[in-house]
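step=encode ok
step=design start
structure_in=
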C-alpha cells in the first residue's frame, strides 16, 4: 500500500511579525525582506516536489506559494487561515500581557478566546476538519505528494494533534519559509488518524557528486 507525503511550509516574513505583533486574519502581504529570504532559501536549498499545492487565502501564503511553486496553480482553502486574534490583532504580547484571558489563552485553555476572535477549541476544530478532508482527498485521487502553505499556528496545532512523534504545539514552532514533511500511511491513518513527521524542510541541496 502506497504512502502519501504532505509538506507543510510556513509562509515568508511580514513586517508586523518582525516587530512581534500578533497577525492572524489581517491580510498583510510579504515584506520585501520576506520575499528576498524566500527566494534565497529556494536557490540555496531544496523544497520537495508537490503535485498539488494548497494554500491559505491570505496574501502572505498565496505569495509564498507562487515563489516556491511557480509552476503549480495553488488551491486556495479558506479554512487554512491563521487563528482570528480578534481585538488582539496587531498588538504585541507586551501590550496585552495584563489581560488574564490572554495568559489562559497562551496556556492553551480551549474555552478562552480573544474578544471578537476565535477560541483555541474553535480554531483547532476548523483546521483539523480541513486537514482530514485534504488527506482523505489525496487518497481518493491517488495524489501522493502535496504541499500546504499556511501559518505557524496552523502547523503547530496540526502536528500536535496528528504528528508522530507526539509533541506539544510550541515544540513544532518553525521559522518563516521552513516546515515539516509528513508521511501518511493509509492503514495507520484510517485506524489512528496519525501521520509520521519524518523530516524538516527545505533540505540542503545535494552535491551533484553524490549522484555519481
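sequence_out=
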Amino acid at each position: 500500500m502506497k504512502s502519501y507525503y504532505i509538506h507543510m511550509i510556513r509562509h515568508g516574513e511580514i513586517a508586523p511579525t518582525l516587530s512581534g505583533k500578533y497577525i492572524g486574519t489581517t491580510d498583510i502581504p510579504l515584506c520585501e525582506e520576506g520575499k528576498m529570504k524566500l527566494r534565497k532559501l529556494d536557490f540555496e536549498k531544496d523544497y520537495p516536489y508537490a503535485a498539488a499545492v494548497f494554500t491559505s487565502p491570505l496574501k502572505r501564503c498565496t505569495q509564498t506559494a507562487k515563489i516556491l511553486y511557480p509552476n503549480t496553480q495553488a488551491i486556495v482553502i479558506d479554512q487554512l487561515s491563521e487563528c482570528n486574534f480578534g481585538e488582539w490583532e496587531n498588538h504585541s504580547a507586551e501590550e496585552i500581557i495584563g489581560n488574564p484571558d490572554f495568559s489562559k489563552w497562551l496556556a492553551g485553555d480551549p474555552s478562552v478566546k480573544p474578544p471578537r476572535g476565535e477560541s483555541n477549541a474553535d480554531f483547532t476544530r476548523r483546521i483539523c476538519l480541513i486537514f482530514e478532508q485534504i488527506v482523505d482527498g489525496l487518497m481518493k485521487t491517488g495524489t501522493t505528494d502535496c504541499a500546504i502553505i499556511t501559518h505557524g499556528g496552523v502547523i503547530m496545532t496540526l502536528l500536535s494533534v496528528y504528528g508522530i512523534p507526539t509533541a506539544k504545539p510550541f515544540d513544532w514552532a518553525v521559522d518563516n519559509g521552513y516546515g515539516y514533511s509528513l508521511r501518511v500511511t493509509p492503514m495507520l491513518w484510517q485506524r489512528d488518524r496519525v501521520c509520521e513527521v519524518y523530516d524538516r524542510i527545505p533540505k540542503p541541496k545535494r552535491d551533484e557528486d553524490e549522484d555519481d
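step=design ok
step=annotate ok -> The first strand starts at residue 4 and ends at 10.
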